[in-house]
Structure formats: C-alpha cells, structure tokens
Amino acid sequence: MNQSFHRQSNYFNNNDEDNNLLKYLQSLSPETIANLSQPKTSEVFQVMERNIGGLLGNLPAEGFGVMVSTSRENLGKLLASAMMSGYLLRNAEQRMDFEKALAGSNDAQNN
What we know:
Number of helices: 4
Radius of gyration: 20 Å
Number of strands: 0
C-alpha cells in the first residue's frame, strides 16, 4: 500500500496549543460564527458559487454524473481556498457598503 496514504497532513495535526486563531474561533458564539459565515447579499453568494464551481470543474449537473475524488490534504486546501475567497468577498462587500454610506453622507452635507 502507498505509504503517503498513511502520512498525516500538517493541516490536521492535533497540535492546537500554539494556534491562536483556532483558540479565537473556538471562543466565538455560534451566532457570531453564523453571522460571519453568511454572505449579506445574493451577489456574494453567486460569486462564491462560481468560484467553487471553477475550482472543482464547471460541468452542468444535468447530463453529467460528476464525482470528485481527492485526498484529505487536497480537500483541506480546497476548503482553505474557498474560505479565503469568502473572507475577501465579505470584506469587499463591507467596504462597498461603507463607501456607499460615506458617499451618501457627503451628498447630504453638500445639499
């Protein structure tokens, strides 16, 4: 049997005592996690859906029986990539809302 199959990935080590981000995430309430996890607009959700579809391969579900197989390590990398894209899009969404609010307050002051 292939020895790399049994090799433990660095992504799944149980050495959590030095991981401050993990400790912080574990300290958050479920409501906060849910709020951080959900896009506020359907536009962000659509971009994420297209991004993940692009990562996996974008064959339409009708007419194709697509099955993806991968290693645990590669699945972890895919998840990390999707999470980073989500955070980037969420920050961009917040910045856009902030700039719109700022522009609106500037317009109100000028009138």
